[in-house]
Amino acid sequence: LERITDELARSTPERETLVEVFERATLTEDEERKHREDAQIAFERARADSEYRRHQIEVDQLTERHSRVIEAQVQLGQADEVVDSIVIDVELLAEIEDAYLELAKLRAATQRALPGVTVKALTDVDVIIEADAVSLTADEERTFSVDATASIVVPDVIEITVTAGTDGADVAGALEEAEARYEELCRRGDVTGLPDARVKADLASEALRNRATAVETFERDLRDLTLEALANKIQRLNHKIAEFEATRVEIPPIPDDLTVAQDIERSAHDAVTAARESAGRADDLARTAKAKLVDFDLGHVHLKAQLEIAESAVSSAVRMLTVSREERSDDELTAAEDDARTAVTAAEVAIAELTERLAALDADTLETLLENARAAHVRSTKDLQAIEDHRRELEITLTVETDRGPARSCDEAATRLIEARIRHDHLTSRAAAAKALYDTFVRHRQEARQRYNQPFRARIEQLGRIVFGSTFAITLNDDLSIGTRTLDGTTLAFGQLSTGAQEQLGLLARLACAMLVSADGGAPVIIDDALGWSDPGRLDRMGAAISSAADDCQVIILTCVPDRYSAVGKARTVRI
What we know:
- The chain is an alpha+beta fold.
- Helices cover 73% and strands 9% of the residues.
């Protein structure tokens, strides 16, 4: 009791120290947690500033890409117009150049082979040269070559006839053939002559280079996006920028550029990391101090409980001693204690004698034999029980087999055979019915496709001739998709067509389908900003086709580029 009381007295200052340490650790933990939260807020703000500046740079870059793609689209359309308008190519230009050189050589040879005639007027005079009336002034000369015969007439005065030789006539014939070939080549190339052919060939080459540059710009700036997707991405980034600017507090100000913003973000990240580590250490210290205080309080409570138990035991002992003294005196208790000690000594002597006797009997061997006998008894009991269980199972089996008999087994087998045959016949009938149903579905589906094929193809070709011309024709696959396209006698598979042509045919097919079902109530055709790969000339004809289809069905066009559909004559524009 005194020990416990002393321990409680000594523990009081120690507990006060632990409480003081715990309170300091808790205060430090709160301060570090607040510092960590402030650092986290600063880091998130710095990260948002960096993302804002990064979005601005992305918008600038994407806007430049978008502008380049728009310019390339215009350049591609102009190049296609130039290429489509120029008939001449490298081979035809070479033929024109060869014909021009041949013509020049023959003209020079003609000048050498044909006789030349020079008419000089000595006074003002009117003459007729090759049936053309010519007025000559004094000293005026006219020179010309004679390829066959030529006449010079001074009316009412003289007529002079000049005849060329045979060689001159041959040269003149070759010259006429060369001139005819040169003119034919120029007509084929739709040019006036060699200079014009060279100019148009240069224009075509430049247009092809511009087209290649435009396609390269598409691949470089669009990458895996479409023009609409690129514009939508710019719009989303601008929305994020505007939303950030509307919600960003003024203090601290936004960094001037991305580099400064990233530096601030890195510093804020380091500060957050340090604050988290410091807060973690403070939290560990607070938990340790709390654990020590809790352990100490548990020990203190245990000591108090021990003190209460000890005080209760002392009180009980005092009461018992008082009662015992009332029943027996101290001398009687002392005599009883001596008798008890004597009895204990005698018992210890008897135990020693019994221990010696037990050792002489080899107790370990007796214990081993006893354990073995017990195990043998258990095993025999289990074996007897197993034999009894097997006997009962044999009796039950014998009874069942006696009651059933071979005849009953045969009847049961026959019944199972009949049931199996019935199931087999049923399954066979169901399989035959399923096959007949499948064949019927296939036949009717094929017939339906054949019924749809001709009117569907006719509608597509009707619209297609508006866009591609009178030589346009298509074939349909079994699934009613477009298989081939024929234009100007050339047939190409759908997959071999350009992206723009595939998109145009797909749109025409949708319009044709809507036109076919218009008689039964119809279905609207919704076009979401299509025809991005079509040149301006093709867009005009596609507009006419869409306008024609709108006579039979409703067509709804969603677009952020209204000019692309300006050629739709019957359109009504609704801005949203």
